[in-house]
């Protein structure tokens, strides 16, 4: 059977590997301490960066870019050299194998191929076995994890204070990104309340899944077979989640209380029952995967709420009327405290269900009821702008994340600069 690349992901993986596999034929273009940077490393890194940024540089720009990227590789190698000799920085075999399996599962999921099809592609395109591929990728992943642990060990993102974020905004507000067409919504949310019988059935299922994990079954396999979350096909992988971005506070508190490698006991939120496994933490983000069992409420309750929202949509012709309904019915305490008002968001990032609920994207329009897992919401458009600048009052979370990354990178550069002076560095490009 002839296989086609269903995304660019696999092509990039195979390209990067082909360069890595050819290292023995490379020339050394830089030496950092006892570690060398090979020509193939730079070519692979440049290829990936150019594709990610969508660049098409000419020959002069490419030469300039190569020097810039080489400096980035040198900085990374400095971190790696330091990590290798620092006894506080370690990567366990379990963590390494877990991340390796996650990467391969992600490749399979993104390209919609089986492990057998991927193995055939490796043999056909590169002439190597899956075992050889894993060996090469395992080394790359180990280096990435070591660098991340250096950053986690030496740089505490919690040191970025509110005053630091405010200073960052005032210093750089003119250079912060301008958001395109943006929308400001307010909402009424009513949570669904399933019966005790439904809850008990869901709880029995989540505890049975925890038993499977306790008996040594693979988390990703259990998730793909039994989880009811939309991410089940990818082994329950939710990717990196930033602190302060979730509306479900119980869920956020739980994931940020765990250390990498830890798995939670089953716990309940308004959405259902969860088991969380933490893969990694860096800065104010945590990489998690989950087992999820929904708690399905009775259909009669859903239809009652939808009928109420249809009535509000038909009767509320003013903002004052909608705010009154928010105060009377909404169970989302965070938005209710602001009369239902949410934060500005990019229209392009607005979830399709909410966007499709509106007949017209006009100020004052009220959409149709939107079912979101174990709640139903009704949205009203408060404002729309063609473009807007970020402000502290409207976009604190976004600005906070940008500021934290800025200060972390600043501290990281200072560390690298100090460690570079302690190492022999020879650039031969």
Keywords:
four-stranded antiparallel β-sheet; Triger factor/SurA peptide-binding fold; alpha+beta; Chitinase A, domain 3; globular; disordered N terminus; 429 residues
Question: How is the secondary structure organized here?
Answer:
Elements: H1 8-21, E1 28-32, E2 35-38, H2 39-53, H3 59-85, H4 93-111, H5 115-125, H6 130-154, H7 162-172, E3 178-179, E4 182-191, H8 196-214, H9 219-226, E5 237-242, H10 249-255, E6 267-269, E7 272-282, E8 285-294, H11 299-315, H12 319-329, H13 333-336, E9 345-346, H14 352-356, E10 370-372, E11 375-385, E12 388-389, H15 396-420, E13 425-427
Antiparallel strand pairs: 1-2, 1-13, 3-12, 4-9, 4-11, 5-8, 6-7, 7-8, 10-11
- Distance between the amino and carboxyl termini: 44 Å
Continuous helix count: 15
CATH architecture of the largest domain, please?
A: Orthogonal Bundle
Strand order of the largest sheet: 9-4-11-10
CATH level 1 name of the largest domain: Mainly Alpha
Let me know the number of strands: 13
Helix content: 40-55%
Q: Going by CATH, what is the homologous superfamily of the largest domain?
A: Porin chaperone SurA, peptide-binding domain
Q: What does the main sheet amount to?
A: 4 strands, antiparallel
Tally of distinct domains = 3
Q: What name does the CATH topology of the largest domain carry?
A: Triger factor/SurA peptide-binding fold
Oligomer: single chain
Structural class: alpha+beta
How are helices and strands ordered from N to C?
Answer: HEEHHHHHHEEHHEHEEEHHHEHEEEHE
Over all CA atoms, what is the radius of gyration? 25 Å
Instruction: Please state the overall shape, judged from the principal axes of the Cα atoms.
Output: globular
Overall average residue pLDDT: 83
* Low-confidence residue ranges: 1-7
Strand content: 15-25%
